[in-house]
Amino acid sequence: MDVRRIQLFGGRTATLLDNNLVRCVIEDQGGMGVELSAINLSGGRENSAYLSSFRSCGCSEGETEESSYWKDTPIWKHLAGSTFVFPNYGPACVVEDEPLPRGGVTAVQDWMVQRYGTDAKSGGVWMLSSMRNRMGGYLIRKIDLLLPGQNVHYTATSVTNQRERPIKGNAVWTNHVGAPFLETGCVVNACAKTWMTQPDWRENLGNHGFDNGVQFDDLSHIPAQGGKTLDYTVVPPPNGFTDLITGRVPRDLYVGWSSVINPRQQMLYFTFFPGPMALEEGDMPVNFNNFLFNYGGMDETPFVMYDKGSSQSFSLDCGSGTGMLSLGLEESLKKETLMGVDTNVTIPPGETRTMYYASAFLPFENPRIGLNFFTAEESEGGMVVKRTKSWAFIASDTRFSAIRRLRKELIGEKSGSGI
């Protein structure tokens, strides 16, 4: 078990957590999880996180002629792996006179590491970090935790409303996976049964293959332009499209989830969170699965080396949260429900809401799981994914008991109460 501060290439700073099964590296800049790695069946350490080709190496916005990218859209400067997005999941907008950048404030602002150490009760290693937004009137504190014997990165992200009126916002975890883990032939899955394509891309950004604003119930038959359907349960070769879909998390679930499997490498990336039936007082709901299929459709700089050039990005975001597809807070305030569930989280004055979310990355022995699984079920000590008689086990704390206890000890308040 290991937890320590490290210096990264390019002047960035980060915290490393390692439990001998998975290694997690979280940058201070944007709270980006730039590494969630595990040992694969070949004995090599493999990173699941996507690292964009255009990430700014340093933190200065005035050193290069491309500085306008970092100033106008600061998320491009940090984009990588996994991060918590609040309060705006979508294009830049202005809400209540507050300018909100693309990707939310949380993904572009520096996080302050307050403490880190080892939990005597669980034996896990943890980090507590925070960020404050005075204009928006909120304080966010996040705990990252690795437990012994589990290939899982746990998070508890608490948003406290420090103003005198309610806060409404999008709250989404993004999980961008990329090479060497992501490749053509990977298979995807999620708990959602009802899906919708993006109704409108508010910016002229990229090429899109799906029909606009169509509801459907089968990832292998996504309505596409020209009256066609596309099977996106299997990752295609770069096809020149970038598309987003969102799926309603079923209301009868105790554990919500999404997954990406590499059948050739026999590696599984699996995210999970408390479902609607498992929410406790003060929990922030996760109402939607999101898939952002970035398969070469972004043909403008900085995604390409020159205008209309060959895309340098090939990634898949298998995140989840509460928002209005990726249209942003401005649109979710206009339409506060989608497919019958809320598109915003609401935090009353002086109260705290906490999102619990976890990502697992691990090898599996049975190659049939690489064909994708049919069910994901809670079992004693973790989750079991099954394909007829074949199965794989994910050792995990599916009810987030350890991090719930740790949160109370470190933050010293009951989620849902005042600060």
Describe what you observe in this structure.
The chain is mainly beta. It has one domain: Beta-galactosidase, Chain A, domain 5. The chain is built from 4 helices and 32 strands. It has helices at 67-72, 75-78, 329-334, 401-411; strands at 2-7, 13-18, 22-27, 33-39, 45-47, 82-85, 93-95, 98-100, 112-118, 125-133, 138-146, 152-161, 167-169, 171-177, 187-190, 194-197, 215-216, 222-223, 229-230, 241-248, 255-262, 267-274, 288-295, 315-317, 320-322, 337-338, 341-342, 345-347, 352-363, 375-379, 382-387, 390-395. Strands 6, 14, 16, 17, 20, 23, 24 and 25 form an 8-stranded antiparallel beta sheet that branches. An 8-stranded antiparallel beta sheet has the order 9-10-11-12-29-22-21-15, with helices on one face. A 5-stranded antiparallel beta sheet has the order 1-2-3-4-5, with no helix packed on it. A hairpin with a 2-residue loop joins β31 and β32 (390-395). 50% of the residues are buried. The mean pLDDT is 93.
